[in-house]
Predict the 3D structure of the following.
Amino acid sequence: MTGRLQRFANPAAFFQAGLMRVCRAARQALDERGRFSIVLAGGSTPLPLYALMANQGLGVPWESVSFFFGDERLVATGDRRSNFGTIAPVLFIPAPIPVGNIHPMPSTIQPASQAAVIYEEELREACGCLHWETPRFDLVLLGLGADGHTASLFPHSPALLERQRLVSAVPPPTTAKPAVGRLTLTLPCLNAAREVLFLVAGQDRERAVAETLAARPTPALPASLILPEKAADWLLLAAAEDRAV
Ligand code: 6PG
């Protein structure tokens, strides 16, 4: 069963809907567990949402919110391709978020397989999990590439076969940019989330969304393998020329 797809023609409405979903998840997590854990999507689409979050808040104390990353490019944080380096000035600097609540992926530790192990340990420690437990994030934000990738799980990647580890190191993709090695949360980790929300925008993404939602789960379309207990929802911002009314 798939979740709900909401299509937007208006960017402001699209991002406001995203903020509402984050705030709702935050409130529910605070009511139930006293804390809110969110996994941020990389890429460019969610950046205006992150700016809204910083500007308007989540309706819960920042001290109760922990931020994690769904994936990261294996570059320094000052590199323009860094997800953390791109998100920090939009969200982490403007908002009074305690530094200890922000968990960037160790993007410069080599070998990358060791960086994956280190982040996996950090995830469990930050979420209070024992070493064999899988953290259950309250909300995971994901994007979608034109090739059907999500996080840094690319079509037919061996990382899609991972059933134990929470974090994998993956080689530079051949179907998406930037073509650099990455760290990514794995399917077991992502699918343990209490809630998953895809935020998708762009002319070449409508087809990828339609194909993903229509497909049986397949490694050809990694986003089709995102199958949390509560089906993922989708917010789709129509391509600019389609917004004209
Ligand atoms: C990354 C992202 C990736 C992204 C999609 C969509 O590090 O590249 O995590 O999965 O979400 O590629 O990217 P855009 O939002 O830039 O279209």
The two ends are 32 Å apart (CA to CA).
